[in-house]
């Protein structure tokens, strides 16, 4: 029988008279003995903080990197993807709520060490490893070890994240992280408080810090009808990307489908996503996409210089066109894609 992976002492915490303060995410939970943080997977045991989901896998699959979604990072490659349980958000529309709301005792989990996961990526012909499906920051002990192992084996590393890091956790993982897709769920603190039980400002700060540290960054904005889809909200988001990150950062406006606790809203109209695309392009963003609408023309990548199509996408099938040595073959402009 395969030996179970033991729990690990957590990273980034401080002790205070029997309580501990977790400094991994921006909640900075103060946790009493025997209790867990908001994420449900970090527990105070006798004044020490332990990660309960280290080596515990709920989901694993070989995915196209475009599924993360990452459209400008090693297009056409496959990435070995892993998830566990737990999350530091409480999103009413969570698509993966069965794992994000679960604790380590609630689901049958595979025992899989970070090193084993990276070896699986090699064996299955993947170019990288991604930590996704639930929030990777609450799995940092496992994910960081996996990133370091992947780095040693010349595989790229990816987080799909809500971005609710602390500066300390960004500094810890960024040297070993090649790319991240961050879900920016709205540009409104009230939305974050009511819908996700968190805050917006740490997410924006983390995006800026990841980008400054050289992590390839793409952003996803799930457009939820009546919640974050006003022209004002979409323009505020696009202007922040342009001014705080740069116009070359890819943005994905993704279609909402009713899920979890929010089932009384319709799917996002395609026209609303197209309006978001138009607003972002008018703001000056170079690469803007429509997501969860298979076959839409705004899945493709166009040269910001001359408008030539340079990457054609059909579902997750990718055809790189009109690119010569990292430049548009039509006009010679450099293309902001990591190959």
- Unreliable residue runs: none
- N-to-C SSE series? EEEEEEEEEHEHEHEHEHHEHEHEEEEEE
How many domains? The number is 3
Total strands? 21
What is the makeup of the main sheet?
8 strands, mixed
Helix fraction, binned, reads 10-25%
- How far apart are the first and last residues' alpha carbons, in Å? 42 Å
Tell me the fraction of residues in β-strands, as a range: 15-25%
Structural class: alpha/beta
- The CATH topology of the largest domain is what? TIM Barrel
**What is the CATH C level class of the largest domain, in words?**
Alpha Beta
Number of helices: 8
Which strand order do you get reading across the main beta sheet?
A: 8-9-11-12-13-14-15-16
State the CATH superfamily name of the largest domain: Aldolase class I
User: What spatial form do the alpha-carbon principal axes imply?
Assistant: globular
Q: Output the radius of gyration.
A: 20 Å
Task: Report the CATH architecture of the largest domain.
Answer: Alpha-Beta Barrel
Averaging pLDDT over every residue, what do you get?
95
What does this structure look like?
This protein is α/β, with parallel strands linked by helices. The chain has 3 domains: 8-51, no CATH class; 56-299, TIM Barrel (Alpha-Beta Barrel); 304-339, no CATH class. The chain has helices at residues 97-100, 114-123, 140-152, 167-173, 189-196, 201-212, 231-245, 270-283, and strands spanning 8-9, 13-16, 19-22, 30-31, 42-45, 48-51, 56-57, 59-64, 78-83, 110-111, 128-131, 156-161, 179-183, 216-223, 251-255, 288-291, 301-302, 309-314, 317-320, 323-324, 327-328. The strands form 6 sheets. An 8-stranded mixed sheet has the order 8-9-11-12-13-14-15-16. Strands 1-6-5 form a 3-stranded antiparallel sheet, with no helix packed on it.
